[in-house]
Amino acid sequence: MRYKVKKGVVLSGLQYEMRAVLKAIGKVCDELGLPVEITSGIEGSHSCASYHPYGYALDFSIREFSHGEPEVVVAYLKQELPSYYDVVLEHDHIHVEFDVNKSQKFGYRKEF
Predict the structure, then answer these.
(1) CA–CA distance from 79 to each of 21, 54, 73 (Å)?
(2) CA 8 – CA 31 distance, rounded (Å)
(3) Residue 19, exposed/middle/buried by CB under 10 A (0-12, 13-18, 19+)?
(4) N- or C-end of the chain: fewer Cβ atoms within 10 A?
């Protein structure tokens, strides 16, 4: 799977936990013949509760998806990723984040 990255998106500093997201979205989009475009990484201004600045969140464009395809991708991601990943379908993108607080409640331990 090839990932397109929107101009200006910063992925330097992306946390290890986001690799699972890239793998999962790459797999489902490859199976459906859909493009994967990362539209937000750690750059930009986000809400004060956002995980983007810490490298724990990514946004993916749904601009080239047909009706119903975003919902299929979101359902797949929710099934494939552990429950401490939040997957949200916004009006123009899919937002996926590793929720640090939830991960601690589930006993997630970062391994190197």
Answers:
(1) 12, 24, 10
(2) 28
(3) exposed
(4) C
- DSSP one-letter code for 76: H
Q: At what angle do helices 19-32 and 69-80 cross, to 10 degrees?
A: 140
Output the pLDDT for position 110: 67
Is this prediction's pTM over 0.70?
Answer: yes
Looking at residue 39, its amino acid is T
Tokens of 69: 């395809």
Helices (H), 1-112: 19-32, 69-80, 100-105
Rounded mean pLDDT for each run of 10 residues along the chain, 112 residues in total: 88 93 95 94 78 94 94 97 95 94 77 51
- Asked if 1 contacts 27 with a C-beta cutoff of 8 angstroms, the reply is yes
- Which pLDDT belongs to residue 104? 78
CA dihedral 99, 100, 106, 108 (to 10 degrees): 120
d(CA 41, CA 19): 13
**Domains of the chain with bracketed CATH:** 3-104 (3.30.1380.10)
